[in-house]
Specification:
With 293 residues, this protein is mainly alpha-helical. Helix content is 49%, strand content 3%. The protein starts with 13 loop residues before the first strand and ends with a helix. The relative contact order is 0.12. Its cofactor is heme c. Belongs to the CcoP / FixP family.
Length: 293
């Protein structure tokens, strides 16, 4: 290692290190670096003293300013609730007809209801309420227990086949699996049910099959779906005469539904959403259905 010397070009001393004729300069650290190091250190010390920082045995150092993010969040939530109280109280106190006749309240229903629906319902029913495989179209299809806001609100509150003590129950029996009907009878009912929503299914070649299927339907299915297959609100059985199918209206899907049965699930939202939000969601769904007509 060579001895240190002063570099003729820069005027800085060398460190004495040399590699292939290249000498290392002993360049001093720029003062601005020291400035930022000192400033950062001072800021860190001051911040540690003023703000909550070091943990202790039973708590933590709360800082001289007494800042508390939990308190700040609670205050923010309380302020938000106070701002919403003007319309949440109206939603709770007024009847459905009064709310639906109030343009200002319905504007709130549409804005806030959309957010609630997307956050809590769209995962199953889709963002526009048009349904997904296994989940009904609640924007357009006839509702199983009724489409008025009060009935929709009760369905949201207690759910379907849910854990709530007052939940609605709806189940399609497994007529084939449980040997109530043989496969031939299942196929006849499938053809008959298809003819209800699509009369073009009926041809001279399957007239007898449809007639036999109608008889089997009357004996086994009409108690829930009604004599004409138009559904019944009391049982929550869907209308089989329209074009809306929760599990599919093709022959394979219908055969599967009749043979193996169906039992959907809608969770109860009581306890998850406030009464005001449940009522608001019911109004939003009812408004969605009105707009879709």
């Amino acid at each position: 290692m060579a001895l240190s010397e002063r570099d003729k070009v820069s005027g800085h001393m060398t460190t004495g290190h040399e590699w292939n004729g290249i000498k290392e300069l002993n360049t001093p650290v720029p003062r601005i670096v020291y400035f930022f190091l000192i400033t950062t250190t001072v800021f860190a010390v001051v911040w540690t003293i003023l703000m909550p920082s070091w943990p202790g045995v039973t708590g933590y150092f709360r800082g001289l300013l007494g800042a508390d993010q939990r308190t700040a969040v609670k205050l923010s939530v309380a302020e938000g609730a106070a701002e919403r109280a003007s319309w949440t109280n109206a939603i709770l106190d007024e009847d459905f007809a009064t709310i639906q006749a109030d343009p200002a309240l319905m504007e709130t229903v549409r804005e806030t209801g959309k957010t609630l629906f997307v956050d809590n319902c769209a995962g199953c029913h889709g963002a526009e309420g048009l349904g997904n495989p296994g989940f009904p179209n609640i924007a357009q299809a006839p509702t199983m227990w009724g489409g008025d806001p009060a009935t929709i609100m009760e369905t949201i509150r207690v759910g379907i086949n849910a854990s709530h003590d007052e939940t609605r129950y709806g189940q399609m029996l497994a007529f084939g699996r449980d040997q109530m009907l043989d496969l031939g009878d299942v196929d006849k009912v499938v053809t008959y049910v298809q003819s209800l929503s699509d009369p073009a299914i009926a041809t001279p070649d399957n007239t007898d099959e449809i007639s036999e299927g109608a008889t089997i339907f009357a004996d086994n299915c009409a108690a829930c779906h009604g004599e004409t297959g138009a559904g019944m609100l009391d049982t929550g059985a869907p209308n089989l005469r329209d074009q809306y199918w929760t599990y599919g209206g093709d022959r394979a899907s219908l055969r599967h539904s009749i043979y193996f049965g169906r039992q959907g699930l809608m969770p109860t939202w009581e306890g998850r959403l406030t009464p005001a939000y449940i009522k608001l969601l019911a109004l939003y769904v009812a408004d969605m259905r009105t707009a879709a007509k």
